[in-house]
What we know:
In chain A, about 60% of the residues lie in helices and about 5% in strands. Chain A contains 9 helices and 2 strands; from the N terminus they run H-H-H-H-H-H-H-E-E-H-H. Chain A has helices at about 5-15, 20-30, 30-50, 55-60, 60-65, 65-90, 100-115, 135-140, 145-150; strands at about 115-120, 120-125. The termini of chain A are far apart. In chain A, about 15% of the residues are buried. By secondary structure, chain B is mainly α. Chain B contains 10 helices and 2 strands, in the order E-E-H-H-H-H-H-H-H-H-H-H. Chain B has helices at about 10, 15-35, 35-55, 65-80, 85-90, 105-110, 115-125, 130-140, 145-150, 155-175, and strands at about 1-5, 5. Chain B has a two-stranded antiparallel sheet. In chain B, helix 3 (about 35-55) packs across helix 4, helix 7 packs antiparallel against helix 10 and helix 9 packs across helix 10 (about 155-175). The longest helix of chain B is centred in the first third of the chain and has 21 residues, at about 35-55. Chain B starts with a strand and ends with a helix. At the A-B interface, helix 1, helix 3, helix 4 and helix 5 of A face helix 2, helix 7 and helix 10 of B.
Amino acid sequence: MSRCVSDRVLLRLYIGDGTAGQRAHVRACVACVDRAEQLRRDVGRITQVLMTMPAAHSIRGPRARGWLPAWGLAGLAVSVAVWVSVTLWRPPPAAPPAGRAPDMESLLEEISTVIFSVSGDPSAVTEPDPLGQSGTLEALDRGCDAADWLEGTCSGTPGIPGATL
Amino acid sequence: MVTDGHPVAEEVPALGTLVQTHAGRLRRLCRMLLADSQEAADVVQEVFVKAIEQARTAESPRDWDRWLTRVAVNVCRDRRRAGWWRWFRRRTDPIDEVGLGDETLTPEAVAMNAQTRDRLWRAFQALPDRQHEVFVLRHVEQWSTSEVAEALGMSAGSVKRHLFRAIRHLRRVLGDA
């Protein structure tokens, strides 16, 4: 019994494969003969059944409902497209009308005035003095000479506006 | 019968006999491969048109049986592979179909319940094209392995491999019933 061939080998023998030894065993072994006969009967039954087509609706039931997933996916895609267009997508901002441009210009001018004013007073605007020239120029206006600068009574640096000793 | 100005009946004198002899068998074969009676009838018609053309243009095949079967299998394969055909099949489900009149079921097949038969049919339809063709030619048409191999343009080993897989799968379905 232990030498009996597997179902796989039995099927191989049935379709014409297998070794001579396996074939000889199946011919001699009562159990294997029965199994081979059962295989032959099964194939015969399968062939007989397949030669008669059953009712179309019964073999096509699952396929007939094949449109369900397709329509479901299509509906989902449309829903996503609508959601994206409504919530995420925004139209580009419209260009401001031409009449508002001067307003913006005056606003920017006002802001710049406040930034460069003294103590936040827009009326006390001073020009920026990045080199510190204002002290030197004032001293020259007051008539400072070199000795005054050496004594420190004048601010600034002679000849080098804005510089201090 | 005149087609394109040529008297076909004179060139293919056995055409009527050919149709009478092979139409039923080819229709059954095509129905097994396509699972659709209307499509099978169309294919059979196409096969006979090809037979007429063959008889006109070249020397007639020595074995019309084999030639017609081979052409039918090829046409069925072409139809199955065409995407439009699947779409068409889904759109035009016939209400009901019955077996061919010349089929006689064995007592065992009759005893098999309808559910098992449907499962077997579905399993058979789900097989790959080659397994379909090999099983039909080998077990329904009763061709030898070498004849199937020659008709399908494959080696005998490939035929056996396809047949092995087809039978194993269908037998499992039968066993699960």
